[in-house]
Amino acid sequence: MLYHDVLIVGGGLSGLRAAVGLCEKYDVGLVSKVHPIRSHSIAAQGGINAALANNPDARDDTPEKHTFDTVKGGDYLGDQDAVEIMCKEAPVIVYEMEHWGCPFSRFPDNTIAQRPFGGAGYPRTCFSADITGHVLLNTLYERSVYKDVKVYSEHVVLALVTDGNLCHGAIVLDQIKGEIIPVAAKATVFATGGYGRVYLYSTNALSNTGSGIGIPFRAGVPVKDMEFVQFHPTSLIGTNILMTEACRGEGGYLLNNKGERFMERYAAKAMELAPRDIVSRSIQTEIEEGRGFEHELGKYVQLDLRHLGAQKIMERLPGIRRICLDFIGIDPIYEPIPIMPSQHYSMGGIDTNEKSETVVKGFYAAGECACVSVHGANRLGGNSLLDTIVFGKLASISVDQYLQSDGFKPDEKLLMSKKAEVEHKIKQLNSGGSQRPFKILDELRLTMSNLAGIFRTKDELQQALSKIIELKERYKKVNVSSSKIYMNYELIGAWELESMLDVGHIIVLGALLREESRGAHSRRDFPMRRDAEWLKHTVATIGKDGEPNISYKGVTITKYEPMERKY
Ligand SMILES: Cc1cc2nc3c(=O)[nH]c(=O)nc-3n(C[C@H](O)[C@H](O)[C@H](O)COP(=O)(O)OP(=O)(O)OC[C@H]3O[C@@H](n4cnc5c(N)ncnc54)[C@H](O)[C@@H]3O)c2cc1C
To answer: Which residue out of 17, 115, 124, 276 is catalytically annotated?
Structure first.
């Protein structure tokens, strides 16, 4: 058994920020399935929001204005007290990252450069060309090395250990040694990222399975607002690699097959810089109404950067140009980029408050796996990198307070009995069942992309629900070729599949029950937002039968009464 004061699961921005905040005072162990700098945070391109007012066009920007844009962008489902905290913290953490060495792009006066992003009243997205996640993650990783954070890479958390009220640690699979290890901890922080790979078409890393949401769910921790799934408007056709919103922030156009900047029809003022939910629906509508382009890899519209000129593209979007050249042989300096929307971000997640606390004492969550909620029904671009660092930091403060006031000792017997349970379950995965895990996963992904996508209907969601229930039945007979633990990706995939089925189930059930359209949840059969009945968070908890039960809870409104969203 391993012992740490604090166990952090996840080596992305939120996990590393929590670790850096705690490691001077406590013995911290950070467990990650992939090496920290292979976490999905590394792929973030466009930037991180903070009302620094550096841009000459944004001298009167303030954290209050950032708060309002975020609340409105989230279609009024965000908890406004939490949004306010995040936006106030934004300048603090951006300057902290700068002081820790993060190489942000600069304006000529040497202040941190800021570009316009969707749904924002001001250009307030700080960036480093189109590799913002890369520089932020490397800065935090270097800091964690400097501070001697103990990192366990290639270690997968399989189960959380709680007694219902208190968290005692987790059960971890060491892929390299091929061992199952209980890790006892006084406090555990999940920072496991999103669940994008539950969908077939996603911009997310393959490691984004959402097991960090399914595992606490099955340990009795509620999850919130899971039906709100973000589809990014612009992913490269055939690959679903993200073409950052910064392409439009820098002035890129979206064009249909008639050469029209069609956003004029949907958001005449904001045009290409309307929030993502609106732009994705607009693209989908253009395609459905026959104004898209046809390609063997699917239907698409164009993202046109040509008028920006070679110099701006090379300076501000060099990574985008490289990706286009390498993956589809197109140079955006001379040709428009073929794009389509695809799954991108998880607004929902583990139900936490603004202190990153969950209902289980000693168990915290931060970053994309958590739902505070600050993004409400639709996240604004640039607000997720912000969320990860702010709530990673706030989680470290909460854990510090908890450890100061509590002389709690993890229960070793409980950890050992959970270990035995996990080992038994692993053996069962190799006991001659008839179902192959990859087959079930393929069907789940197709179901989610086809039936729980940008536009939803009761009929399609019901079909999706029946399919997922069938897949969960089949999962009971799932079989892997070997139950050996050493570097057995098939086994880990089969283990994580259980979480992916739960995640899909909760998304679809929440979406079926929510009879309105709000933010990224768009029902063709209920096209209006319906505040009287639906201005509330969806909460899913596990029932005695292992199935999700849905209940609802109120949204915190402080200053901003819900209004119609116009852009
Ligand atoms: C292509 C792309 C571009 C983006 N660009 C931007 C942008 O410009 N601006 C913005 O604000 N947002 C952006 N986002 C969103 C943002 O990058 C992510 O929401 C954020 O980085 C997530 O960080 P995280 O710390 O929560 O998790 P991640 O960085 O995803 O890290 C998750 C960690 O958890 C670990 N893990 C997961 N499950 C387990 C397990 N069971 N056991 C052990 N370890 C586990 C993984 O190993 C990993 O280290 C982008 C997202 C994508 C996909």
So the answer is: 276
